[in-house]
Amino acid sequence: MELTKKLLEIQTILRTVESTDPGQDKKVSPLQLPSIVVIGSQSSGKSSVLEAIVGQEFLPKGTNMVTRRPIELTLVNTPDSDEEYGEFPQLGLDRIRDFKQIQRTLHDLNMSVPESECVSDKPVELRIYSPHVPDLRLVDLPGYIQVVNRKQPPVLRQKIRDLCEGYLKQPNIILAVCAADVDLANSEALKASRRNDPLGMRTIGVITKVDMAEPDMAVHMLTQNEYPLHLGYIGVVCKPVREKAGKSSHEIVLSEAQYFQRHAEFRQPEVQVGVGTLRRKLVRVLEDSMRRSMSTLVDAVRSELEETKYQIKVQYNDERVSPESYMAESLDTLKQRFKAFQQQFGKPQLRSEVQKWLESRVMDVCAELYWSDPEIKQLSNQWDEDDDAFWDHRLSQASALLTKSGVGRWTTQMVVNLLMDSVASMVDGEPFAHHPETRNAVLNFSHEILRSKYHSTVDQVENTIKPFKYEVEVEPHEWKKALRRSSSLIDNEMRLCRQSLAEIRSSTPKKQLQQAMQFVRSAEKSGVDPVGQASDNDAVAPADEFGYAQFSPRLVRRAQQALMIQDRLTILHMRRKALNSSACASMDNKRFCPEVFLDVVAEKLAYNAVLFINFELLHDFFFQFPRELDSNLYYGKTLEQTREFACQNPRVGKQLALLERRAKLELVMGRLRELVRQQTAAEEQATPLRSVRRGGPGFRPFNEF
Q: Which Gene3D superfamilies does the UniProt entry name for this protein (predicted)?
């Protein structure tokens, strides 16, 4: 009994360790110890036998097929406790003391298999702890059927047979259950056992419902030699028996023991009857089988352990990792990236980004109010003092358009977008590419930090730039710097215009483009829409009333774009010359140099905006981010959550599985060594004059490990 208990504990560990051989049948793995496989036809009494062994009603009942999945049942004797309970390790259900609840759970798990399939090879693992059960491991399989009903698939009989065949292979012990009211020649259980155990060396026959046959006929079934089994047959009566008391018509209710004691035929030495006898037989046979299998198990565990160590060495160079260390390392990687970004993105970088945005706004304002105005040529070439009022008004209008266009909102939103893009780039690479939920969590709390400071930052920026909406004072040194910057901006605009014009010319034949441009000029002078006069065909059509060939709409649009860019280049050339003139060297002529003045305004807006964005938004974000990272993703995480996070990375998950597998195999190997030592010592003590046989069945000397 003690050996069986320890080996069942080892078996529980080995159940979580799969063989590395991909072609190995998982039902009969080399890492598995023998189990007692219970087979029989439907209504043969399989469930009643198992419940009699356990002493509790816990198996699902029903008229239809209720056992649709293998039930791998482990019985654990607990002599030091009076508590009886069951556990479903796969479901995480522990200490279920109500066996009716166990019955309902088993029923639900079996009914989860659809009727179209009827059976599934996915086992249900159940452990029962009780001081009244022996240490056993049994497998209850779906019962064989004779006839398939109209709701069941035609292949059901074969599916049940194939499922059972997988469990009946060596070294498992077969418990063939047959009803006494059915001829043994028709027993599906005996037929299946004969296919897998032709000599009957590992099959125990159980005859149920013995009370349904006459005692002498029942004894004949238990002792017959037509279907011999080395381990014999045992008769059981799992339900109370009603018999007449003598010659009277009065009935009495007998227990199994009373029934067998009442009939002398069952008291013959060669007749084995009773659930108690069956229990003892199962315990003895299972222990003997496990003892004989220990040598094979030791070899299999050693082989699997060596193979696992080899894989760890080859694939990971014996690198140590744990779910906790992987999570900590991943978060440290993100913190280092964030720290590097924080060092690179300070106040100067922030000001540069805001300045770029405001300079683009300056160009937009100039294009809208100045460069599109035909009077800009007079402003560029010569001006009259009578025009001062007009251009002063235009400059005020431009300044207002720049300062009152929501600078606070736009600059703050630009910085928020820049920060969110930077955080996204940090979590887009390794290792967070394997952790989409964690990536989203980082983005979410980053967004929350920025959102909480967004409105206050916008208000602060708008308040600080409010004076510039009414008056802007310009210092000489500010004007000189703005003159250089605005000249550079116009040069950049001219470069972009030349690039766009070159792209149009390179994608369109030169002659066609020139003709189309002339056509557009002529049509515009005549007040005619050139696109409306274009031909639907891409080819050039005959000349129209204006003397020009008609062109396709696509070509006309390209010609319009080319003309617009040429006109813009002409204006930019004039403005560039104006900025180089002596007039723009003095800030007193700001009305005639709007690009320079607006650049001064943009510089002042950028300086003040950055001052409060940096204080209100950036500092708080840099302070809160690493703390939110620890709070949301590290602290308070359970071991299960940490392991789930690590296993999301396929490489790390495989490495952790191998490390866990190695630890379990080493634990099993240590326990097996201890069992072998105990066996060796016990045998030496029992036979002190006989030397221990090397390589004997069931054990191996310690020095061979």
A: P-loop containing nucleotide triphosphate hydrolases
